[in-house]
Design goal:
The protein is α/β, with parallel strands linked by helices. It is about 35% helix and about 25% strand. Strand 8 and strand 9 form a beta hairpin. The structure holds adenosine-5'-triphosphate. This is ABC transporter domain-containing protein.
C-alpha cells in the first residue's frame, strides 16, 4: 500500500501534535518512523489507521482516504488494554481469527512457537514482554497491505527486542508496507528500508536507509542523534 500524507495538522487543545507533516512511503517498504518521545509518531499512526482525523491536510492510502475500505487492509493494534486479561493466548487468537477475515492462523501459530508463547497461558499471567510479543503476533498474522507497529519493543529487554525484530522480519509479507515507530533507533535499524525523522510534528528528514548511511558515513542511530542535537 502506498502512503501519501500532505500538510497534516492535528491539535489537541494547546498541543500541536502534527504541524504540517508531509510524508510519502512507497509500497513494499519498511519505514522507521524515528523520533523522541512526544513528537507526533502515535498521532500519525492513528491517523493512518483511520481512528483519528487530522484538522487539516490529506492522507491517501492507495488512492483512498482512510475509512472502512482501508481499515480492512491495515493491521494495527494500539495496546492490549482492550483485550480481556482473563483470556488465554489461544482464546485471544480465536477471537482475532473470527474478527479479521485476513487472519492467517497457521502463521500466527508459527510465530507463537518462534516467540515461545504458550497457547494455554492467560494474559494476566504474562509479563510485559510476553504481552508485547502477543501483540506483535496479532498484528503481523493478518494478511494486510499495511502494518502499523507503534513502539513494538517499548519496555522489553534487549534479547526480547531481537526476538521481536526477527519475528517482524520472518512474518513480514513481501510487497506489504510497514511503519515501525520507535525512539530505539539502534535496535531497529538493521530491518529498515527507509527512515523518516519526526520532530515537533513534522518530518524533518526522509530517506532510503542505505543512502542515509552512505551520505552521512555513519549509522542511522548516530545520524539521528546528531540531527536531534543540532
Ligand atoms: N489525546 C490527547 N490529548 C492531548 N494531547 C495529546 C493527546 N495525544 C497526544 N497528545 C500530545 O501530542 C503530542 C504528540 O503525541 P504523540 O503520542 O503523537 O507522540 P509520540 O511521538 O508518539 O510520543 P511517544 O514516543 O512518547 O509515544 C504530545 O505532546 C502529546 O502529549
Amino acid at each position: 500500500m502506498k502512503i501519501e500524507c500532505r500538510d497534516l495538522v492535528k491539535t489537541y487543545k494547546t498541543v500541536q501534535a502534527m504541524d504540517g507533516l508531509t510524508l510519502t512511503v512507497p509500497e513494499g517498504q519498511i519505514l522507521g518512523l524515528l523520533g523522541k518521545n512526544g513528537q507526533g509518531k502515535s498521532t500519525l499512526i492513528k491517523t493512518l489507521a483511520g481512528v483519528i482525523r487530522p484538522d487539516s491536510g490529506t492522507v491517501i492510502l492507495d488512492g483512498q482516504i482512510p475509512g472502512t475500505a482501508t481499515k480492512a487492509r491495515v493491521s494495527w493494534l494500539p495496546e492490549l488494554s482492550g483485550l480481556d486479561l482473563s483470556w488465554s493466548v489461544r482464546h485471544t487468537l480465536n477471537f482475532w481469527q473470527d474478527f479479521f477475515l485476513d487472519f492467517n492462523r497457521s502463521r500466527a501459530d508459527e510465530m507463537l512457537k518462534q516467540l515461545n508463547l504458550v497457547p494455554g497461558m492467560r494474559l494476566r499471567e504474562m509479563s510485559k514482554g510476553m504481552r508485547e510479543k502477543l501483540q506483535l503476533v496479532l498484528v503481523m498474522a493478518r494478511d494486510a497491505d499495511l502494518y502499523l507497529l507503534d513502539e513494538p519493543m517499548a519496555g522489553v529487554d534487549p534479547v526480547t527486542r531481537e526476538e521481536i525484530l526477527d519475528t517482524i522480519l520472518t512474518g513480514y509479507r513481501p510487497g506489504s508496507t510497514m511503519i515501525l515507530s520507535t525512539h530505539l533507533v539502534s535496535d531497529v535499524e538493521r530491518i529498515l528500508d527507509r527512515v523518516a525523522f519526526i520532530d515537533q510534528g513534522q518530518v524533518i528528514l526522509e530517506e532510503d536507509a542505505d543512502e542515509l548511511r552512505q551520505r552521512t558515513g555513519t549509522s542511522i542511530s548516530e545520524a539521528f542523534k546528531r540531527r536531534m542535537r543540532a
